[in-house]
């Protein structure tokens, strides 16, 4: 099968949906003339013109609000945030308008919008530009939150997000834009709300998403050499959460470790671990393990950033603790 | 608006109930407070009353169904009301979950349960590495129960001695070979064993006793009492009662109840309960009496037994035991004990030891009163003796305290006249 970079897969999804439905448009900082800050929107201005691919001033709250208004009257906007660090400025629009219009209008209004852009640590960008802020959105009823880990998932999920009748927060990974993976030529969709087992195993379940899936897979490889069989479940969709997939895996392995790139206190990982501890109590052989970045702002120094984030060795140690090995 | 009637928690430890009988049928009018069904709980058969006025539109459970607390039993509403939506939503399983919230126990004529503030089981006490408590992972505990494995026979390989899955797997695998060869010799090839379903009571006994046995460190003190005076006095009392035409008859067990209650009052160190981070010292003496019933046992409680006369105790025991056998005890009649007595004397048992009934800290197991040769002043004579064994929770009661209680009990049973003072 052909291989595409994560950003190319996203570009294909946007191009296919722009072509498929003339209500779809892309708007954000540098998405048109500059072809995107991370080159996700390469070629889209040429192909679809300035009415479908629109550059905005640096006003996140403003263009998020314009997008939400457009969605409420029938268009299907895709709003690019240059990164989710900047989307905090638009949080009021997203939380108080997009997430609540269907509910507060008694179903008369809907808001079929996608808010997308990169999140997470990105290598030497400092405390303000390296944050994993998915918790802010996963916390809010009325939003769906998707965080794909591969080019294949990114394309299929972005197409589903654009077609979804409700607001979807679609968080990409800044570090993974250039990572390649298999993507078929023919069209496909991946439903929101479905997890994916990225590696099957029998001794311990790792529950994770986005870039941490790859850290988990690397650790699983090393652990396999030591005789420990790890199942890596990529949650992909954090709201709604695929509880059935979690149940199925943990009932098989009796152990779980939850890994996230974000801070750990009051986080998505905390809620996933709470769900496993409560719902699967009788199936657990060990306390649910958790890994997350340290409770500090991201250090700017090259040598300190990697020490702040979960890595393969952390995962290996956590899985061994859960398996009572060493 | 039609309402769902769900299985209620009719006893403190009930998590499942069996529908014994509908007292109403579909189409019957029911008013609030009226009895609609009989439910067999883990302890007794209870009558369930309606919370609503209306017509029983649909019965969702049949006689003999065993259903978890919160499961739908029936729909009540207005005559000819359309309940298809409600029934459809039941199929999809949504409201049953909401109904699984703990429901208030409403039993016809039941007074509030006066259980001392205690956790449901010793297993729910908080764990800390220093408290010497057995640590077991949830799945290991479940596997042990399913395999009928006594956890105290398993050693834990996890941190702090926690028993984990692999320890149970090893323990199950170990005796397998021995089992197979024994079975090969003993079992006739074609006599198929009968599989008997567990009653609610049997399930609760199985679950609770595994909990108690695996989490409570028992020790035992045994003593032999001279029962000659007690037997003589009992004869006298019963002759007197018969002559007065009262119809009450005092048993040896009634006298042991009274003597134990007075001994506990005089020696309160055993009238306690271990509560994880503290001990409860009871001021009152409430004595549970183990009564064998059809498919198990239950311990009705004689409250303030130290303050009651022998004839009152005799009357109460007979009445409670009778209703226990008919499964008609109310929850407040079998809970709240501070000490228990189990007596197998009537079966000619010499002595035995009993498992503690938590949250109590001790239980007295009594054998038969027997005439046996005894040595008195260097001569062999015929003596009247009874052997008793006190099981104590070592977290709350030490050996000397157990012995101290038996010393006190000996005083009353060997000089029963003291019970009158």
Give the secondary structure arrangement, pairings included.
The complex is a heterodimer of chains A (326) and B (421).
Chain A: E1 3-5, H1 6-20, E2 24-28, H2 44-48, E3 53-55, H3 60-72, E4 76-80, H4 91-98, H5 101-104, E5 114-119, H6 134-138, E6 144-146, H7 151-163, E7 168-173, E8 180-182, E9 196-199, E10 204-208, H8 212-225, E11 230-234, E12 237-239, H9 243-253, E13 256-263, H10 268-279, E14 289-293, H11 305-308, H12 312-322
Parallel strand pairs in A: 2-3, 2-4, 4-5, 5-7, 6-7, 10-11, 10-13, 13-14
Antiparallel strand pairs in A: 1-8, 6-12, 9-11
Helix pairs in contact in A: 1-7, 3-4, 8-12
Chain B: E1 3-6, E2 16-22, E3 29-30, E4 35-40, E5 45-49, E6 54-59, E7 66-68, E8 72-77, H1 84-92, H2 94-99, H3 138-147, H4 165-173, H5 176-186, H6 200-215, E9 218-226, H7 228-243, H8 252-266, E10 272-274, E11 279-281, E12 287-289, E13 291-293, E14 296-298, E15 301-302, H9 310-325, E16 339-343, E17 362-366, E18 370-376, E19 379-393, H10 399-414
Parallel strand pairs in B: 12-16, 16-17
Antiparallel strand pairs in B: 1-8, 2-4, 2-7, 3-6, 4-5, 6-8, 9-19, 10-11, 12-15, 13-14, 17-19, 18-19
Helix pairs in contact in B: 3-4, 8-9, 8-10
Number of strands of chain A: 14
Spatial strand order of the main sheet of chain A: 3-2-4-5-7-6-12
N→C terminal distance of chain B:
64 Å
The number of helical runs of chain B is 10
**Count of the separate structural domains of chain B:** 3
Specify the biggest β-sheet of chain B: 7 strands, mixed
User: What about the largest sheet of chain A?
Assistant: 7 strands, mixed
Please provide the ordered H/E string of secondary-structure elements of chain B: EEEEEEEEHHHHHHEHHEEEEEEHEEEEH
Name the shape of chain A in a single word. Answer: globular
Structural class of chain A: alpha/beta
Q: What is the rounded Rg of chain A? A: 20 Å
Kindly, what is the distance between the CA atoms of the first and last residues of chain A, rounded to a whole number of angstroms?
A: 41 Å
Global mean pLDDT of chain A = 97
SSE topology string of chain A: EHEHEHEHHEHEHEEEEHEEHEHEHH
- Chain pair forming the biggest interface: A-B, 8 and 11 residues
Q: In what range is the share of β-strand residues of chain A?
A: 15-25%
Helix content of chain A: 25-40%
Named CATH topology of the largest domain in chain B: Chloramphenicol Acetyltransferase
